[in-house]
Specification:
heterodimer; A: about 350 residues; alpha+beta; Rossmann fold; OB fold (Dihydrolipoamide Acetyltransferase, E2P); six-stranded mixed beta sheet; five-stranded antiparallel beta sheet; 20 strands; elongated; B: about 280 residues; mainly alpha; MetI-like fold; 12 helices; about 0% strand; globular
């Protein structure tokens, strides 16, 4: 298994003014599942292709277990990439697709057949070996693509948007399959996605890339609790950014003077808190209790989104629908911002 | 008016041309090949023309030559066109110009190309004179026979020159629509560059190569003008032989000429069938 180090990796495409990827550095520990998260065109797939050796970096380095692999040919790197649209070879059967990597290594056909059978069992498609890819559903094609990659026992597995082409129920199924196979085989895995929910549920760590630059590389929950800046917070669904000044203990802003958690930075900045951390107050809270007027109520099924006006400042909240059954637009209600949920950026 | 009627009416002009002109002509030709020409009193159909064709030694020599021309031209053109397409799909400085030059002879008629070939490669042509001028050969007559030669080198050169861009343009468009992701997958699964070409790119572009090469084979097998201009007198390519018989002063040779033309078409169809079957099995395994 392999520890992947990406050092100041940069890619400038010929004729482009801005780099597609700008000095990206990452340390991906052995056997971990890391998500490269970012919107389309931010440089995620470019990064993957450079790790796989399918694209030359303009500068920087890619190291496996401390050794630079930039001079290694793609077929010698031990990296397998599974593309977003599966790219199963259409003229081959499912079994031939899965056994392709072994055939290229000139493994004995009987051995290929045995390992293909095992791998199809593993991805729960044991009876489909003779079918052509065009006769499979999207979810089945994704499993075949995964089996084709795993059969060669790669050191590093790269997954490009692995769940984006699947229906909701297949996404859950596939997510669990990827996670369990990755943990079972202990393969260092990097996957790219534009979907923060997908990144959070699947990855051990998430690297957020915006405009070709890495914004934050952390465990998933940290992005919700401690975003490094407004862009990062917004990417993870943050809406509330209140300008003001912090003295390290409290934050003076349009909402009043609010108590901060330990470790908060001092100086001017923006106070941020997630909409789901805004609580309907009971009136008993000792601090950070505010009075808000409801400007809008948006029913989302299992949750309700509220647009609140607090001291002439708009605040967004997401609450349990039962909590605001008795309230309507224009009503006032107490809201509580627990100090541990506040963060200054 | 119903949709069916609309479709029928829209297809009518094309169907008229195909059914009346093509199949009509074919039917009349077939009747004549069976010596059935009521206008000149031949009302008893027979196989005499076909027997005459199949018992003539020249027919077999001509068939072998024509097959050699069509097969060699198609294979060389296809291989070189794939190579050219592989180069042209890469980005490099001056690619637009190279692409333009590559395709320019698509606009040059076969006949013009053949005359150019004659001027360049015949024993009294430019290359022969240049070689003699630079003392590479004693006189232009010592220049190797590349036209009117028994191996049909001039004819094959002309077809290769003309058909490379034809197949190349089709294959290049095919490659560009496929993209490079399949090859990237293969490389990351451990395939070398050659294996990627052999097991991934070639099978993917195969339908395009097959269609283009079938067209080239059918054309070169049945074409008259290039073998007539650049070919040796004996043995002549089948279409040349058929035309000679058709224009024979003896009208009795005409059914034989038509029988030969029908045999050419049938042989061409049979060979294309086996070519498609065999190559599909070889390439796609």
């Amino acid at each position: 298994m392999t520890h992947v180090s990406i050092k100041e990796l940069t890619k400038v495409y010929p004729g482009a003014e801005a780099p597609a990827l700008d000095r990206l550095s990452l340390e991906i520990p052995t056997g971990e599942l890391t998500a490269l998260l970012g919107p389309s065109g931010c440089g995620k797939t470019t990064t993957m292709k450079m790790i796989a050796g399918l694209l030359e970096p303009t500068s920087g380095d890619v190291m496996f277990d401390g050794r630079s692999v930039l001079r290694d040919k793609p077929e010698n790197r031990g990296v397998v990439m599974v593309f977003q649209n599966y790219l199963l070879f259409p003229y081959m059967s499912v079994a031939e697709n899965v056994g392709f990597g072994l055939k290229m290594r000139k493994i004995d056909p009987a051995e290929i057949s045995r390992r293909v059978g095992e791998m199809l069992e593993l991805v729960k498609l044991p009876h489909l070996g003779d079918r052509k890819p065009s006769a499979l559903s999207g979810g089945q094609q994704q499993r075949v693509a995964l089996a084709r990659a795993l059969i060669v026992q790669p050191n590093v597995l790269l997954l490009d948007e692995p769940l984006s082409n699947l229906d909701a129920h297949l996404r859950f199924e596939m997510r669990d399959l990827i996670r369990s196979l990755q943990q079972e085989m202990g393969i260092t895995t990097i996957f790219v996605t534009h979907d923060q929910e997908e990144a959070v549920v699947l990855a051990d760590r998430v690297a957020l890339i915006l405009d070709g630059q890495m914004k934050q590389y952390d465990r998933a929950d940290v992005f919700y609790k401690r975003p490094v800046d407004e862009a990062t917070a917004r990417f993870f669904g943050g809406h509330n950014f209140i300008p003001g000044t912090s003295d390290g203990h409290s934050f003076e802003c349009a909402l009043g003077k609010l108590a901060l958690p330990a470790g908060a930075v001092s100086g001017t900045g923006r106070l941020t808190f997630r909409p789901e951390n805004v609580r309907i107050g009971s009136g008993q809270e000792q601090e950070n209790l505010l009075t808000a007027q409801i400007a809008d109520i948006i029913y989302l099924g299992t949750q309700t989104r509220l647009k609140l006006i607090v001291c002439d400042t708009e605040v967004e909240a997401v609450v349990n629908p039962n909590e605001i059954e008795s309230y309507g637009v224009g009503d006032t209600l107490p809201v509580h911002l627990p100090r541990t949920t506040l963060w200054v950026i | 008016m119903s949709d069916r009627m609309k479709i029928f009416l829209l297809l009518l002009p094309a169907m008229f041309i195909i059914v009346v002109l093509f199949f009509g002509g074919l039917a009349i030709g077939a009747m004549r090949s069976f010596n059935y020409m009521p206008v000149i009193g031949l009302t008893q159909p027979n196989f005499d023309a076909y027997i005459s064709v199949f018992t003539d030694r020249e027919f077999y020599l001509s068939f072998a030559l024509t097959f050699h021309i069509a097969f060699t031209s198609t294979v060389i053109s296809s291989v070189l066109a794939i190579g050219a397409a592989l180069l042209l799909r890469r980005s490099f400085i001056g690619r637009g110009l190279v692409n333009f030059l590559f395709q320019i002879n698509l606009t040059v008629p076969h006949l013009v190309g053949a005359i150019g070939m004659l001027y360049l490669f015949s024993q009294s042509g430019s290359f022969a004179r240049l070689a003699a001028e630079f003392n590479l050969i004693a006189s232009p007559a010592d220049f190797p026979a590349l036209v009117f030669d028994p191996y049909a080198i001039g004819i094959i050169l002309q077809y290769v020159w003309k058909e490379i861009p034809f197949i190349g343009v089709i294959v290049l468009a095919n490659m560009q629509s496929i993209g490079e992701d399949y090859e990237s997958v293969a490389r990351s699964l451990g395939a070398s560059k050659w294996q990627t070409f052999r097991y991934v790119l070639l099978p993917l572009i195969f339908p395009g190569v097959l269609s283009a090469s079938v067209m080239v084979f059918a054309f070169t097998f049945g074409a008259y003008e290039i073998p007539a201009i650049l070919g040796a007198n004996f043995p002549a390519a089948l279409p040349v032989l058929a035309y000679r018989k058709y224009t024979d002063v003896d009208l009795a040779a005409r059914p034989e000429a038509i029988a030969m033309a029908i045999v050419i078409a049938l042989l061409s169809a049979v060979m294309i069938y086996f070519y498609v079957r065999y190559s599909r099995r070889r390439i796609r395994g």
